[in-house]
Specification:
The complex is a heterodimer of chains A (about 180) and B (about 325).
Chain A: H1 13-36, E1 59-61, E2 63-64, E3 69-70, H2 77-81, E4 87-92, E5 99-106, H3 115-119, E6 125-127, E7 142-143, H4 145-148, H5 152-173
Antiparallel strand pairs in A: 1-6, 2-3, 4-5, 5-7
Chain B: H1 2-11, H2 13-46, H3 62-72, H4 83-102, H5 118-139, H6 143-174, H7 179-189, H8 196-212, H9 224-227, H10 237-262, H11 273-292, H12 300-326
Classes of the chains: A alpha+beta (about 180), B mainly alpha (about 325).
């Protein structure tokens, strides 16, 4: 029911009533349709939505199946790009075939800003779809290399073996240039 | 076995009355659990949600859990409250609802008190609800409660008149003030809703019922966005639960009353009468909830204008038609 009418317009209660009633029934139709529509609720602990491909979840270090190693060479470009000093690593070996033996991320400090991923020239670090990262303990936010590497513990071991083998091969191939390599 | 028990109670009328009172009071306390569950489910579905899900199958026991929680809550009385009225208000609301249920026929013979002026009685005791709301609003020493209470009284008294006039049309049509009599008339002559003047009376009754039980287009007494929670703002724990229970039991009652007046009460094919009563009641409750989630809230002046300038004249004219067409 409209109450205040423009002075020029003749107030016609019946027309107002019919208009009000028709809009009411139209509204009822809208809610009735909505009643039968599929529900948008995701019953979270029981149901999960697939994450979009560019979702910024838990980091992972990419496993290179062909070379049997992680792509990471331990160049620390990601650690230098990081604004909150999340990343620390221990480099294994040297040169183009170097790797990492230790790669730790303190996600308690992480902003999930993607700068480390953008900084990486070796396709080594990415953000994955995992998102349940909250914990009751502070040290649970500390993710070590085995938690981050694709393939876990096994991959880390193989990675170290591969890098060490590569380093040994390089050492052998290098022309003897004195004993000060250590 | 049941006959023996019933016969035993019939031999002691006082005891039998006591049993009926206990059954009615528990019914009035328990039916809101079902109505509130339906309300939350319907609200969820209309808003593309699922509603309560976890406690019991499809969340059926969610309201039971909520009621238990309210039982355990602290009972807070505001410091400046008028304590006696503050204490007693929710129970008056609840008792008025129990009293209305007393004369409601659920099925042939299933009525606590066969009364030949049941309609009058219902209209009388339902006004106690207004008293309790005013008491709650006045005694809480809170501006929101007071405004809610005043709005409630203005609104409920305004809508009482067209409601009674539309009920009166039914009374003139059937020539009976007894609810059982009205239902029996409909069993014999067909539902009253198909009679043109009663159809309009039913529509007016429906609108007034929405206002009487403070549901959404007319929920000014507890307008959340303006008055926190209206007249029951200061209530907590068990007292709040009683207000809440009485509100939803009233919701059930006012639809059951409409079912008896317009939709033939327990009348219906195949299914047993009690099932028909509940079916009609819950269909109407669904419509109430459907309305609740559709139109926005009116202003107090719009509500009162609508009642006095539109509903009262229309129901008076309609009553005249009902008398002309109905009285034989």
């Amino acid at each position: 029911m409209r109450t205040r009418q423009p002075a020029t317009e003749q107030y016609n209660p019946l027309a107002v009533f019919i208009e009000g009633l028709s809009t009411l029934f139209y509204g009822m139709l809208v809610t009735w349709r909505n009643f039968w529509r599929p529900k948008v609720t995701v019953r979270y602990p029981y149901q999960r939505k697939p994450m979009p491909p560019r979702y910024r979840g838990l980091f992972y270090l990419k496993w290179n199946e062909e070379k049997q190693r992680l792509n990471c060479v331990g160049c620390t470009l990601c650690a230098q790009a990081c604004p909150t000093d999340v990343i620390s690593m221990v480099k294994l070996g040297k040169g183009t075939n170097a790797g990492v033996s230790e790669f730790t991320m303190d996600l308690g400090r992480c902003l999930f800003c993607n700068l480390c991923v953008e900084a990486c020239p070796f396709d080594a670090i990415y953000m994955g779809p995992a998102y349940e990262l909250a914990s009751e303990r502070r040290d649970a936010a500390l993710f070590r290399i085995a938690d981050l590497a694709q393939g876990g513990e096994e991959a880390v071991r193989t990675n170290i073996e591969t890098v060490q083998r590569l380093m040994a091969e390089e050492e052998k191939a290098r022309p003897a240039a004195g004993g000060h390599a250590g | 076995m049941i006959e023996v028990v019933v016969q035993f109670f019939r031999d002691y009328p006082l005891l039998w009355t006591f049993v009926k009172a206990v059954v009615l009071a528990s019914f009035t306390l328990l039916i809101p659990l079902a109505v509130i569950w339906v309300e939350r489910k319907v609200a969820g579905f209309i808003q593309s949600r699922l509603g309560p899900l976890h406690v019991g199958p499809q969340g059926t026991f969610q309201t039971v859990a909520d009621a238990l929680k309210l039982l355990l809550k602290e009972d807070i009385v505001p410091s400046g409250a008028d304590k006696r009225f503050f204490y007693i208000a929710p129970y008056i609301a609840f008792i008025s609802t129990v009293l209305s249920f007393m004369v409601l026929p659920f099925a042939p013979g299933w009525v606590a008190l066969e009364m030949n002026v049941a309609v009058l009685f219902v209209i009388g005791v339902s006004l106690f609800n207004v008293v309790s709301i005013l008491m709650a609003g006045w005694s809480s020493n809170n501006k929101y409660s007071l405004l809610g209470g005043l709005r409630a009284v203005a609104q409920l008294l305004s809508y009482e008149i067209p409601m009674v006039l539309s009920v009166l049309a039914v009374v003139f049509y059937t020539g009976s003030l007894s609810l059982t009599g009205i239902v029996e008339y409909q069993v014999k002559h067909g539902w009253l809703i198909w009679q043109p003047p009663i159809m309009i009376a039913a529509l007016i009754y429906f609108i007034c019922a929405l206002a009487e039980i403070n549901r959404t287009p007319f929920d000014l007494p507890e307008a959340e966005s303006e008055l926190v929670s209206g007249f029951n703002t200061e209530y907590s724990g068990m007292r709040f639960a009683f207000f809440f229970a009485s509100e939803f039991a009233n919701n059930f009652f006012i639809t059951a009353f409409a079912a008896a007046l317009f939709f033939g009460g327990w009348d219906g094919p195949i299914l047993p009468p009690i099932v028909w009563t509940f079916l009609k009641v819950f269909v109407m409750i669904f419509v109430f909830m459907w309305v609740r989630w559709t139109p926005p809230r009116l202003r107090i002046d719009q509500i009162l204008r609508f009642a006095w300038q539109f509903l009262v004249p229309v129901s008076l004219v309609n009553l005249l038609f009902a008398i002309v067409l109905g009285v034989r």
